[in-house]
Amino acid sequence: MSASRSAPSDYEQDKGLQETKRHLKGLSKKLSQFPDRCTFKTGQYNVNFTSSLGVGYMMVCTESYPNVLAFCFLDELQREFIVTYDTKRTNSAVRPYSFIEFDNFIQKTKQRYNSPRSLSTKINLADMQTEIKLRPPYQLSPEELGSENGFSQHTPSKYKGIAPHQMLEPVTLAGVVSCVLSLLCTGLNLLRGVHAIESILQNEDEDFNYVIAFFLGTAACLYQCYLFAYYSVWRNIKSFLAFALICLCNMYLYELRNVWQILFHVTVGAFITLQIRLRLPQGKAPDYNV
């Protein structure tokens, strides 16, 4: 979904502007493939855009318009949109112009930003200047977009490595409980591993493989917590492999743990593996213009 486009009405008949605006619809369909803050230069105009929570915010301005003001404008629209509309409503949008009433705020904000001198006391440019300096917008080129007009639907994305991490669905109570229990198992494994090292130092006949099993179990439990908290490629497969490692470690430690202890560790591992599978990535909202 594209939340805005900004350009003075004096340029409406300008060929360069019309050509630039022709790119907006195609570009908006591919926002999810790009980093969350980009600039696309076309002729004497710049298309600046940001994206967050499946919603894109776009504007067209002359190349002389300051980048910091452009992204302050988009940031202001983004904050107002998030406050005005909840995620449930944006995700359920099924038609263009679903948020046409938001245009009133866009037009008022656009008028302010078309007169930059009036903004000095109303926005904090220093924060945005610092942010842009530390994390400058990615500069897209027509060649990078993959075709003459830049919008081939089948061009593979080259920006997956620099795009922001995909967000997961909100945490549930069961998920929190599974993560806490997994951290408890982590602590128990770590404690027993330290004691096993002490036993080896005091008695050379002790099996060092027990130490390895305890610390592998510790690492597997911590990795399960990481997979629950953050999105990762092949996330479900990784969590299953971590669960398999937990099971193998507890099978090897059968002589040092009773059946109930082993059952507890395996059950917790299975529980958090299930919660990882149930916590899906958030879906993107459709790309519609306001």
TrEMBL record:
CDD domains: Longin. Keywords: Endoplasmic reticulum, ER-Golgi transport, Membrane, Protein transport, Transmembrane, Transmembrane helix, Transport. GO terms for cellular component: endoplasmic reticulum membrane. It is a multi-pass membrane protein. Residues 1-106 form the Longin domain. It is found in: Endoplasmic reticulum membrane. The chain crosses the membrane at residues 167-190, 210-230, 237-254, 260-278. May be involved in vesicle transport between the ER and the Golgi complex. Belongs to the synaptobrevin family. This is Longin domain-containing protein. It comes from Alosa alosa (allis shad). The lineage of its organism: Eukaryota, Metazoa, Chordata, Craniata, Vertebrata.
